[in-house]
Amino acid sequence: MLDFGGFLEPSSGAQVQRINRLGSRYAVTVNMPPLENRKDGRVWVNRLIKGQQEGARIEYPLLDFYPGTPGSFVVDGAGQAGKSLKIMGGTPHYAFYEGQPFSIEIAGQHYFDFIATTAVADASGSATIALTQMLRAAPANGDTLHISKPMIEGFIMGDQLSWEIALERMIGLSFEIHEAR
User: Fold this and answer.
1) Cα separation, 25 vs 109, whole angstroms
2) For the residues of 96-119, what is the DSSP string, one character each?
3) In which element (H, E) is residue 41 found?
């Protein structure tokens, strides 16, 4: 996580204060399995170079978490801000679990986050979900939530312009993607 908040630690021994600032966002390090150069390796190298210059979007790996069948949740009402989000249009009684990843697509840009506390949609498929980070942009009514395939979008950072080529013609890659906003 890229945290733009901070702590005020007074020299007088008074209470420490946490200052949360807007703009905190996510960064993910990805380690790819060895890729065959003739099939995928060269393509991934090219995409990483482009991702540094133009930005990139990748699906966040859910690993052993199965999100079930959430339906098609969308934002319920414009002008929302803060750390909660009203949503509608999903599967009735769908359960969101603490730590569950998702992304909101606002004006074509994905904003990644995690569910802060467990929540269950009502019989009409509406819910209010608690977010781990504050909303970084105001969603419009009807903006899409990506729950089954959350995306992280930003720029490729770090030493992405170097890669290993093994004698067996395999390419090993690792990279970081940092959300731009």
Assistant:
1) 14
2) E-TT-EEEEEETTEEEEEEBSS-E
3) none
